[in-house]
Structures are given as C-alpha cells and as structure tokens.
Amino acid sequence: MSNLDGLGYGGKTVVVTGGASGMGEATARILGDLGAKVHIVDIQQPGVPHASFHQCDLSDFAQVRATAAALKAVAPIDFVFPCAGLPPHIKGPLYCMRVNYIGTRLFVEELLPAVRDGGGIALISSDAAMGWQRNLAQCLEMLAISDPDAAYAWCEADPDARVRDGYTSSKEMLVVWVQNAAVELGNTRRIRLNAIGPCPTKTAFVDQSKEIMTDEFIAAWPFPSLGRMATAEEQAWPLILINSPLCGAVTGAFLYTDQGFASGVFTGAISPAFMGG
User: Fold this and answer.
1) SS3 of 14, please?
2) Does residue 172 sit within a domain?
3) How many CB atoms lie within 10 A of CB 201?
4) pLDDT digits over 174-200, tens only?
C-alpha cells in the first residue's frame, strides 16, 4: 500500500484492542499493511501479523492496568484504536457496560502516559448511540466518575435506569466521553480523540447477536450507500482515516459510518418504524 503512505502510519507504533476479530482485526491487518508496528490487545490470540500480543479481559480492571503498564515498554505510542466490544446477551447488560465503556476508558486513560503528544485515538461506538443527547444528563453523571469500581457500583445501584440494555448505554457513554475528553487532551497534549458509529456490519459480533439482529431485522434495515451490510474492512477504513494525521483538525467527532441511517432518521428520510420507533 505504498500509494497510501501519506496516511502517516508507516513505521508508527499503534495499539489495537479487539484486534483478534471483526473490525478490530480488519483495522490491525490494514495498519500492518500500511507499515505500522501493531500491538494487539485481546482476550483471544489474533491471527493477523503483529509486533506483540497482550492477552487482556477488559472486564478485569487489574488486567487492564497491567496490560497498559506492559505496553509502556513500546512507548512512545503514536496511535491507539480501541475496537473491543461485545453485545449485551453474552453476559448481560452490566457486563456489557463494564467492558464496552468502563474497561475501555480505563485502558485508554492508563495508556495515555505512553502516548506521544500529538498522537491519535480512534474508537468504535455504534449508531445505537444516536440518541445520546436525550440521555446526556445521566451520561454526564456517570462520566464524572473516573474510578472504574465506583462507576460500576453506580451502575449496579440502578441498572434498569442507568444501564438499560447495556449496549446502547455503553455506546452512548463512549460518545459523550470522546466529545468531552477530546477538549482537555487536545489543549494539554494535542492528542486527538474520535469515534465512529457503524450500523450492523458483517462480523462475528452480528452473527452472535442473532436473537436481536434476526435475519428479518437485517433484511428490513435500510443500507442506502451499499445496499447490504458493510464488511469489517469497510468500517476499519474510516476509523483509520479519522485517526490519520491528515485529519489533524478533527477531534471530539462522532462519525456515523452507518450508510446514512442516522442522518436519514434525523431528517425523516428513513422511518425507524421497523425498529419499533
């Protein structure tokens, strides 16, 4: 991919969580093709080429801290791609929030001392978070809790209201955190922090979510730009692009990579009726 050297990843040190499957695997593979030194963090062994692998369960906060500490040996880290995430039915809504938001935020914050000034962090949220503004007051309440154990206890105190299905709320929290934390990170260290919001994408994640994303549900979903579910690679590319130095003026952004679904719903071009909305 020498014709894409301008993206700025050649010879750079990058960390990808969730790099053993799905969009994270596609991201890690493409970054390697672009000449980056890719360090993968995942609960399972990755199958793509990598400079190092660190096994870590993001629900285990001690493991998260230890993994971030181990990665400081490869500092300075140029780019971080937090791609790990799971649906709520695997181990329930609370566990989903613990991994998708609390563990992910902890990992990034623990790793930040090893990230170079002027670096980039780009993570995967979801267009499930498209209603984040409606829940902003509650999201800001949780955002203010920086200690992961305290944040989890806050969720446990009222899971029906604060966690709901676990997936939507955790993805909303990622969006609010990105938009809020990007300001201080930019002002103090010129580190950019962004997120993408995919719609249903053809990955093992969707295959594992058949009880929610049934064949009928997917068949009814509008895919204006492709006419089908995107592939993992088609989601990895915008993630990689938004984290590239070429996007130096972009931070605190939530980029919908959902084939126009959210914007269509917002403007009435798409009816969310098939979702019960």
Assistant:
1) strand
2) yes
3) 23
4) 999 999 999 999 999 999 999 999 999
Note whether 123 and 111 are within 8 A (CB).
no
For residue 145, what are the domain limits?
10-256
> In the chain, how many domains are there?
1
> Within a domain: residue 158?
yes
Place of tokens 């980039």: 120
The CATH number linked to 45 is: 3.40.50.720
Closest Cα partner for 234 from 258, 254, 251? Answer: 258
Partners of 194 in the beta sheet? Answer: 122
Q: How far apart are CA 18 and CA 21, in angstroms?
A: 6
- Nearest CA to 173 out of 236, 110, 105 is that of 105
The amino acid present at 26, given as its one-letter code, is A
Q: State the pTM of this model.
A: 0.94
Q: What is the pLDDT of residues 148-160, one digit of tens each?
A: 999 999 999 999 9
- Give the count of beta carbons closer than 10 Å to the beta carbon of residue 179: 18
How far apart are alpha carbons 9 and 240 in whole angstroms?
9
Instruction: Kindly state whether residue 97 falls inside one of the protein's structural domains.
Output: yes
Within a domain: residue 194?
yes
Nearest to 189 by CA among 98, 276, 88, 118: 118
CB 24 within 8 Å of CB 82: no
